[in-house]
Amino acid sequence: MNLFWNTFYDKYGNFDNSKCIRMLEETKKKRAKNSWKSLWSMNIEIHMFESVSKKELWNFINKLSIFLNSWIDIKWALWISVKQTKNPYLKRITQEIKDNIDHWISIHETMTNYPKVFDTLTVALIKVWEKTGKLGSILGELDTNMLENIELKGKVKWAMIYPIILLSLTFCMVIFMMIFIVPRITESFEKAGSDLPALTEFVVNVSNFFIHDWGKLIIGFVGVILFFKLINATYLGRFVLANIYHRLPVFGYIVKQSNIVYFIKSFTILLDSWVLLLESLKTSSLVVPNLAYKKELVRIKNEVEVWLTISKALWLNLDYEENVYLNKMFSEEFAYVVSTWEETGTLSNSLKKIWENYNNELKRYIGNLSSSMEPIIIVIVWILVGTIVVAIMLPFFQMGSIAQQL
């Protein structure tokens, strides 16, 4: 008993679970070593590329919220979740959370070990619950937020991917025409030895490139992918790309608006959960996906930490008759709402209204963009295909001279 007391309690009699966590980590490492020794046995199951999708995580949080709001004990709720979870990786994580509770390890500490599964906002809210005891209501907020984020990210991704898919299909069709159609039609004109029109000559040269030098095209395509991979591997590269993304002519608005929506939603949830202002800013900066917005929110948080107001940190200055607003990340309307809160103390409600407006406006913009992209892609298809058809038909206007040569 004295050994247990000296191991897990400090000199003031407070339980210190850090030693317990360290013991569990050492046990995991020993198990990992033993598992490598028994790789050739049939008792071990190797899982490769383990992951948990956002939808599976939402189902887990949703069920846990329902159980706890039905006054089911947390351990019993986790036990039911283990039985109902189909993803083996998430099942093992849930079992680990349940087992760690028996060893005085909090839920958020276990979740911290899986940053690719549980984002910063989820861990922060679970940590708030463990301090306040309001897990049911907090999980309800988190459940709603995750569902909204899944829907919004799906719309944003579709808005980005949809034009790429259409252009890729168009490019494949053009390559097919260049490889299989253009050579057969232009072969007879080349045998006749007549001079081809400039446009036809250009199309024939492009066709020959696709037929004979297709390897260079693949090397160039792979090179572009590797180039972006290398850029993403460095902080400076990711930061430069993040600045480019939110400054793009059409799609930059989606990047900018979606990051603001993610920030406002996470920030209001944290404030409603009685998280301190600086901690809310810090956690929200980790939630937004764009690195430029992360850096901007960290700057705001640092300036607020030295007793500057948020509106001042957003570069909103109301001390002059003519206001000059220079922040390119957040709109002036957002800065005015924050300034109003600092006078009245109603930030959460004001931000929720702004979030609704921004979210609805973003959805409308994505819908309008998807509708407007279709005729633009059709025009591009007609220009490409029409150029090839015109280039093929131009030599027929010289059939008289070609017939004489034949």
Task: Please specify the SSE layout and strand pairing.
Blueprint: H1 2-8, H2 18-37, H3 54-69, H4 74-84, H5 88-101, H6 107-112, H7 120-132, H8 135-192, H9 198-212, H10 214-232, H11 235-245, H12 251-272, H13 277-287, H14 291-305, H15 310-313, H16 332-344, H17 347-393, H18 399-405
Helix pairs in contact: 3-4, 3-8, 4-5, 7-8, 8-9, 8-12, 8-17, 9-17, 12-13, 12-17, 13-14, 16-17
Describe this entry's structure for a reader:
With 406 residues, this protein is mostly helical. The N terminus is likely disordered. 23% of the residues are buried. The longest helix has 58 residues. The protein has 18 helices and no strands. The protein has a domain of 256 residues. 76% of the residues lie in helices and 0% in strands.
- In round numbers, the mean pLDDT is 78
Alpha carbon gyration radius = 30 Å
Shape: extended
Straight-line N-to-C gap: 108 Å
**Main sheet overview:** none
How much helix is in the residues? over 70%
The fraction of residues in strands falls at: under 5%
Element string (H = helix, E = strand): HHHHHHHHHHHHHHHHHH
Low-confidence stretches: 1-5, 35-48
Compute the number of strand runs. 0
> What structural class should be given to the helix and strand makeup?
mainly alpha
List the total number of helices: 18
